[in-house]
Structure formats: structure tokens, C-alpha cells
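FIELD: query
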Amino acid sequence: MRPFIKAGTLFVLLAVSGGIALAQFAKPEDAIVYRKSVMQVIKKHFGSMAAAVKGQAPFDQTAFTQDAQVVALMAKLSWEAFLVPG
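FIELD: result
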């Protein structure tokens, strides 16, 4: 299941960084949808990290590092949508 999650994450990152991150939001609602999407990705990866820290899932250093990198990237991408007046 882990390869599926990695592929899904890669798709989201490419979609976000490929155009949405640089997009001009036509409506404030578009920025809200963008922010929610970013936060869902962050939630998923924080959840994986939390499970490993709590001992609810096996600790895998590589997976943990990848999750942390995704969270760091997504946290930066979300700021653009917070700058939209609305």
C-alpha cells in the first residue's frame, strides 16, 4: 500500500507545484478549496508520522523522512492561498 500512497502524493505535489501554486485565484472560494486540499495532504502525512511516533505503526526512517519532506513542502505552498483577500 505504501507505493500507492507515494504515487498519490507525487501526483498531488506535481499538480500543486505545476500550476496551482502559481495560480491567480479567480475567486476567494478557489483559494479556500486550495487551502483545504493542502491541509488534507498535510493531515495525511502528519497522521503517518504520528502513528510511527506513538508506536501504532512500524517506524520506517525513509517513510518518516519522506512524510516530513512532504509536510514541509505543502506548508510552504499553502501560504499563497492565505494571501488572497476575501
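FIELD: remark
DSSP finds three helices and no strands in the chain.
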